[in-house]
Structures are given as structure tokens and as C-alpha cells.
Specification:
The protein has about 200 residues and is mainly α. It has one domain: Ferritin, core subunit, four-helix bundle (Ferritin, Up-down Bundle), CATH 1.20.1260.10. It is built from 5 helices and no strands. Helix 1 packs antiparallel against helix 2. It is elongated. The chain starts with 9 loop residues before the first helix and ends in a 24-residue tail after the last helix.
Length: about 200
């Protein structure tokens, strides 16, 4: 590991860069999840967003602990990926504000964020282990588990009612359901970055 005054390089530099990236992302998500909760018409979905917002606040604290392990001050680096995903979520909330598929659209937007986070945290856990930062790896693994749990919860909500609510509206207007498979079914076990 580099000392406080040395500039990191290689995997250590990548690890620090990605921790800063996720720190920025998680702080943005604390605000976004509150907004998404307010837009959801389904109470269970609104509650799921608020529950994950609380988890996200804890994830921000864990990342601050990781910065501490690295001997660094917690500081985010603008995450272009999360900016794009949140811009898309804003557009979805606007485009579907009066549409019965709004809740299904919110789940779609949220799951795109979750999958980005699952991939990112999976990489960070692996990097931390490679660098011998086992305390950091444990913190990051706890967050990875929460992100996977949030994704699974969203999938269940979509499968159990939200997708059908949007589809039922079309069927009631004289259309016929085409029997398409549920777009929110994502059976994720391990991301490629966590294999090994």
C-alpha cells in the first residue's frame, strides 16, 4: 500500500477511484430514492424505496469507513454512470406520471441502478481482497448483499403486481395481453466481477 503522501497506482489507484465514484453515487441516491418514493403510486413500492434509502445512508457511512481504512478523507468523484441513470429515472417519472405503468417504470429505473451498484461493489470486494484490505472487503460485502436484496425485492414487487397493473390497463381498454415474459425477472447469482 502507498503511504499517505505517495500517489497510488495500479489496483490500489483503481480501488480508491471506484470507492470515490460510489461515494458520489450513493450520496446522490439518498436524494433520488426519496423522490422516487414520492412518485410511486403503490404503497409497497414507495415503502421499498424509503427502506432502501435508509440502507443507502448506511452504505455512505460504510464507504466513509473504507476511506478511513485507506487513510483518506471521504471525497466523491463525479460518477457519470449514476448521473445518466438518474437522468433517465427523471425522464421516466415525467413520461409516465399519469400512466398506469409508472410503478413498473420506476422499478425498471431502480433496477438499472441496482445492477450498476452490484457490478461495482462486486469489483470493489474483489479488489479489497486482492489488496489485503479485509476490513474494507467486509464492509463492501455487506453493502453488496444489501444491493442484491434490494434488487430481489423490486423484482418480487414487479412480478407480483406492478407489471400486471400496467398491463391490466391495456387489456381493459380492449387490447389483448400478448403473454410477454416479465421484463423485471432477473435471476442474478454472482456478477462476473465476484467470480474467482
Amino acid at each position: 500500500m502507498a503511504t499517505k503522501n505517495d500517489k497510488p497506482s495500479g489496483l490500489e489507484k483503481l480501488f480508491e477511484d471506484q470507492v470515490a465514484d460510489l461515494y458520489y453515487a450513493e450520496k446522490k441516491l439518498v436524494t433520488a430514492l426519496k423522490k422516487m418514493s414520492g412518485k410511486a403510486s403503490d404503497k409497497k413500492l414507495a415503502d421499498a424505496f424509503l427502506s432502501h434509502r435508509q440502507e443507502t445512508e448506511g452504505q455512505v457511512e460504510r464507504l466513509e469507513q473504507v476511506f478511513g481504512i485507506l487513510g483518506k478523507k471521504a471525497k466523491g468523484k463525479k460518477c457519470e454512470a449514476i448521473e445518466g441513470l438518474l437522468k433517465e429515472a427523471e425522464e421516466i417519472m415525467e413520461d409516465f406520471k399519469d400512466d398506469p405503468a409508472l410503478d413498473a417504470a420506476l422499478v425498471c429505473a431502480a433496477q438499472k441502478v441496482e445492477h450498476y451498484e452490484i457490478g461495482s461493489y462486486g469489483c470493489l470486494v474483489t479488489y479489497a481482497e486482492e489488496l489485503g484490505l479485509m476490513d474494507a472487503a467486509k464492509l463492501l460485502q455487506a453493502t453488496l448483499k444489501e444491493e442484491k436484496g434490494a434488487d430481489e425485492k423490486l423484482t418480487k414487487l414487479a412480478e407480483n403486481s406492478l407489471n400486471m397493473a400496467g398491463e391490466a390497463h391495456r387489456t381493459h381498454k380492449g387490447g389483448k395481453s400478448n403473454g410477454a415474459t416479465n421484463i423485471n425477472k432477473t435471476k442474478q447469482t454472482r456478477t462476473p466481477s465476484t467470480v474467482g
